């Protein structure tokens, strides 16, 4: 897979390093000469250019990219890059970094964004996830379909503890995608049982989040009554 990353700062370089380790082709684009640190990510391609300029993106051959990541520290730049990537070059997947949570509402399909990642929101969510059991935590927002990646750690008193996945009547527009149990990452099957302490990751419509949280956090006594 070929990935272009606009923004070669700490965030862009970190993403590039992980993608390269997983065998992908990576192109880092930045207009600041001081950001071009080839020695830090030597396996990546580098381009000194303004990612908001069509001529720069032509030089980057963006039409050959499977994914574009707008990872600069400027939300305006990330929106422009996303829009150009989607509308001018037909890039299938566009991921954009949101620096200011107040701008998050802009990062949607109208601006070519498939996935918006709010760094402050994600950090906040990770803190919440570390201290909250039984509370639904939103980790990531997907633009298409108004869906979010959400997480909940199943409390001991949950009525669903010990229940098989296939026996749970999940809310509409909700999909359980992963169970994290200790150090194991499980792809849930109908026969798997839910256990107290499981970290459950769902893709869910925002309108269903409250219903999902109520279902997972309901106490056994509540379910019996």
Automatic annotation (TrEMBL):
The RCK C-terminal domain, residue ranges: 137-218
Domain RCK N-terminal: 1-117
InterPro entries: K_uptake_TrkA (IPR006036), NAD(P)-bd_dom_sf (IPR036291), RCK_C (IPR006037), RCK_C_sf (IPR036721), RCK_N (IPR003148), Trk_Ktr_HKT_K-transport (IPR050721)
Annotated GO biological process: monoatomic ion transmembrane transport
Domain of life from the UniProt record: Bacteria
Keyword Transcription tagged: no
UniProt keyword terms in alphabetical order: Ion channel, Ion transport, NAD, Potassium, Potassium transport, Transport
Record-given protein name: Trk system potassium uptake protein TrkA
Organism, scientific name: Streptomyces viridiviolaceus
